[in-house]
Amino acid sequence: MRWLRELDDRKLSPHTGWTRDHWAALADHLLLSARRHASPSHARISFPGEPGGYGPDVDGLEGFARTFLAAGFRVAGEGGRDPHGHLEWYARGLAAGTDPASPERWVRLDEHDQAKVEAASIALVLHLTRPWLWDRLDDGVRERVVAYLAPAIGSWYPPINWVWFQIVVEQFLASVGGPCSPADIEAGLALTDGFAREQGWYADGDKRAYDHYVGWALHFYPLLWTEMAAGDPAADTRRSAYLSRLERFLRDAVHLVGADGSPLIQGRSLTYRFAAAAPFWAGARAGVGSPGLLRRAASGIVRHFAERGAPDDDGLLTLGWHGPWRPIAQSYSGTGSPYWAAKGLYGLALPADHPVWTAVEEPLPVEEGDFQLAIRSPGWLVSGTRADGVVRVVNHGTDHALPGDQLSDSPLYARLGYSTATSPVLAGPHAADPLDQSVTLLDPSGRPSHRTGFDALLADRLPTGTALGASRWRAHWVEPGLDAPDHGSGRAGAATPGPTLTVVSALRGPWEVRLVQVAAPCTSPLRIGGWPVSSASDSLIVPGPGLDLADVTRAEDATPLSPETFIPWCGTTAAAEPGRWYVAGVHLGTAASPAPEIAWTATTARISWPDGVTDTLDLPALLR
Q: Where is the DUF2264 domain (predicted)?
């Protein structure tokens, strides 16, 4: 979609060129392109490609509901002006999809759980566009829509972000005089209150599940619900807490966008792509955060994809990242799934005179200068470098599991590093057997161990600005059950325990100093893996004393970013020496700076960084 460059306004948007006109043009292009794949009465939109794991009926419902989000945002922000007739087009689909006698009728909420997700999008758009759609539907269609949504009442929803789907649906039903269970809403709100963590973050349930769902679901729905339920004491009293959490979260979130607009390539459902812009628009709508910075982040994200093949030449969003790449999908992903990206178009629900559209873009943190920070809830150390615009995360707190679990490592959650310029290895042998961004021990057959279930020990920032983190785990080998659905997390199976590993990371600029200790007894060789990159020159590992092996492994079609991926690693030929601290410098960047120098005094490590800063780490004190 490089033709969008014709609309660029570098005075209003000096960093991206994007204005509201770009966003509107993108939304209309997506919506008009989707129409070509609709059923005769518009109830199902079935995009080309192999059906998803839930089958073509669910795919068709997703295609309708998720594009409906884009249509709703588009018309709501125009105050009902609808030159393309989006709402009239979708009204026909509502009538047919909710008609039990129609050959195009939708999968019901009591037939398939995925319909509970899509029902929330339908209810949300009906709320946002009520004067121009709901109020103009005939009584029979309104009755059928209520009947279609009603099975949400009293139904079971997984105790994760899905709870918000039930809350939104039932709140809409209440607003139109339909059935509703206040007890369901109260129980759901109490559960979601328990998701709140430090610094404005949420966990997606009771596990250490931190990913893009924090922004595009767990911050997206609460404030929208308070609008739907305005005047209800339960909504009005919670709103200030939701606002405060979102404001604090956004301070971290703007640091996680690369200068090229790429969001962090971490966590499940990555095929939703520019849905990652949703929390920035939520902040703008709620009046928290700087409008120029929020639009810069959101426009950077969507522009990143629009200029790299998403949507494609046919105007479609395929299963992939930039272009099509099927391995990125989870088992629940179907041909309509990528259109949750429509959440990233939420800013269109704000009118053209809103400050987020009229403010001049401000630079992202990574465009202003180098930074390091520690985000305690997910246990992330974050480093951004202005020279290359890359944001790196070293992970000592997220694995989509609980401490003590012995699961296989999910490449989407349990790797030691993620960035805006690299993808974890998601296909091929090294997806299940960790090599990239890992510290492992090898069993006698050469299989690497896993770290899921680790203890998170530290995520902090030193007075010098260096970010410091640590985690410890019992290395284990897993024979996973492969018949379980793939929801992006690690797999359970028969586990064989091994020695305990402790890893300490010091992060500054493009370099991580990684310190590794193995507890006795240990009969296994050690492996330390670096960043997986498209060019071997962009990633580097500098092994310290005792690490007598070093190489680069090449993997084919292992990530959505390039046909080839190069993974540098180092390790020991023989069994790792228990109690010894091994150290490696791990670098990601287009231009390598001199490696940090490490000097040891007993159990104290003195790190001299390339920029002249020196940090002294008393390891026993840090790990007490």
A: 19-364
- Three-state DSSP state, 252: helix
Q: Where are the alpha helices (DSSP H) in 397-485?
A: 429-432
Give CA separation, 576 vs 9, 315, 430, 478, in Å. 58, 53, 22, 21
Amino acid at 578: P
- Helix/strand/coil for 25: helix
For residues 600-620, average pLDDT: 94
- Residue 83: which pLDDT band, with cuts at 50, 70 and 90? very high
Please name the residues in contact with 113: beta carbons below 8 A apart, sequence gap of 6 or more. none
β 417-419/526-529 pair status: unpaired
Q: pLDDT digits over 515-538, tens only?
A: 999 999 999 999 999 999 998 788
Query: Residue type for 413, please?
Result: Y
User: Computed from CA positions of residues 132, 137, 141, 143, in that sequence, does the dihedral angle turn out positive or negative?
Assistant: positive
CB neighbours of residue 600 within 10 Å: 13
Instruction: Identify the CA nearest to 169 among candidates 146, 187, 191, 186.
Output: 146
Q: State the average pLDDT for the chain.
A: 97
DSSP state of 264: P
* Helix 139-149, helix 163-175: angle, nearest 10: 150
Nearest to 509 by CA among 424, 436, 599, 588: 588
Reading the block at residue 228, the tokens are 């739907």
384 bridge partner residues:
371, 391
Residues 396-430 have pLDDT tens digits of: 999 999 999 999 999 999 999 999 999 999 999 99
Residue 290's SS3 state is coil
Residue of 45, 30, 132 whose CA lies nearest to 82: 132
